[in-house]
Amino acid sequence: MLTTDHAQSLAPKAKLFRNFADTSRLTILEALRPGARSVSELVDITGLGQPNVSNHLACLLGCGLVSREQRGRHAFYAISDPQVDELLSRADVLLAEVPRIGEGCARCAVPERV
Questions:
Q1: Higher pLDDT pick, 78 / 20
Q2: Measured between alpha carbons, how far is 50 from 55 in angstroms, rounded to an integer?
Q3: Which domains does the chain carry?
Q4: Cα(32)–Cα(27) distance, rounded to whole angstroms?
Q5: What share of the chain in percent tops pLDDT 70?
Q6: Of the residues 9, 29, 53, 54, which has the maximum number of CB atoms within 10 A of its CB?
Q7: Distance between CA 84 and CA 36 in Å, rounded?
Q8: Highest mean pLDDT among 6-10, 18-22, 34-38
């Protein structure tokens, strides 16, 4: 049985995976894998609206998954640490090697973007 302290220590991990569980935030992270991009570039690449991209970037920035660099009038966002990219790569490998992961669980279904 988990102690209260151990359960509380899982909260940061749950918060991390909640960021990856959101389709829009995951789409933005995938778009940032090749390198830094501006909000307008992310809008073009992801097909998400500008306010939506900005809101999700604020969340990702606040959680430390992305960094922001000001270049003149434009802000550029990038994945903050190579380990974030490595986690995304490992997820790709896991899904390729164990294709049943996530199947058969109606509660894990990802809603389609409109």
A1: 78
A2: 9
A3: 4-108 (1.10.10.10)
A4: 9
A5: 86
A6: 53
A7: 14
A8: 34-38
- Other Cβ atoms within 10 Å of 13 Cβ, number: 9
Residues across the chain? 114
Which residue carries 């009038």 as its tokens? Answer: 73
Given a contact cutoff of 8 angstroms between Cβ atoms, the answer to whether 58 and 24 are in contact is no
d(CA 107, CA 45): 29
Q: Using one digit for the tens of pLDDT, what is the confidence trace for 45-65?
A: 999 999 999 999 999 999 999
> Which pair of structure tokens corresponds to residue 106?
């109606």
Please give the span between the terminal C-alpha atoms of the chain, in angstroms, as a whole number.
42
The model carries a pTM of 0.83
Identify which of 99, 22, 103, 29 has the alpha carbon closest to the alpha carbon of residue 64: 29
